Automatic annotation (TrEMBL):
<keyword id="KW-1133">Transmembrane helix</keyword>
<keyword id="KW-0472">Membrane</keyword>
<feature type="transmembrane region" description="Helical">
    <location>
        <begin position="88"/>
        <end position="107"/>
    </location>
</feature>
<dbReference type="InterPro" id="IPR009305">
    <property type="entry name" value="Mpo1-like"/>
</dbReference>
<keyword id="KW-0812">Transmembrane</keyword>
<protein>
    <recommendedName>
        <fullName>DUF962-domain-containing protein</fullName>
    </recommendedName>
</protein>
<dbReference type="Pfam" id="PF06127">
    <property type="entry name" value="Mpo1-like"/>
</dbReference>
<feature type="transmembrane region" description="Helical">
    <location>
        <begin position="41"/>
        <end position="68"/>
    </location>
</feature>
Length: 140
């Protein structure tokens, strides 16, 4: 069974969360609005896709370093120039956080948990996406 299946509001505790398991029901309560959840799911998915593209772009260089020059040549079309790699990484971060923060500030009208619990919040984004993709939780 998933945590907080109805996305009910869970008041923040007076002391910091000690584990992700304690934090996650609160996280879900901060995402009651379907549009906000959708923005999070799209942003997280897009960030993952961009991260995978960045990894694929590094593959020719990694193969060359490992002396697999023939394979490196075949994958050269995927290459992302080192000068452009930071742009792809920045785009992944901006897409993920940008859409999520639009959802919080303009749709849900609450403060993102990222500001107080950045790692738990990031893990919450990935956990929510995983639960939706594996049909453990309804997105809407």
């Amino acid at each position: 069974m998933v945590a907080n299946p109805t996305y009910e509001v869970v008041p923040a505790p007076s002391t910091p969360y000690k584990s992700f398991r304690e934090f996650y029901p609160f996280y879900l309560g901060e995402h009651r609005n379907k549009v906000n959840r959708t923005l999070h799911l799209v942003g997280t998915s897009g960030s993952i896709a961009l991260g995978l593209r960045l990894a694929a772009g590094a593959l020719p260089y990694i193969l060359s370093l490992l002396s697999y020059h023939q394979l490196a040549g075949r994958t050269r079309k995927w290459a992302i120039d080192g000068k452009d790699a930071w742009k792809w990484a920045l785009l992944a971060v901006v897409e993920g956080y940008g859409l999520a923060w639009i959802g919080h500030f303009f749709v849900e009208r609450n403060r993102p948990a990222t500001f107080k619990y950045p790692l738990y919040s990031l893990r919450g984004d990935f956990t929510l996406l995983w639960e939706v993709l594996t049909f453990q939780r309804r997105a809407w």
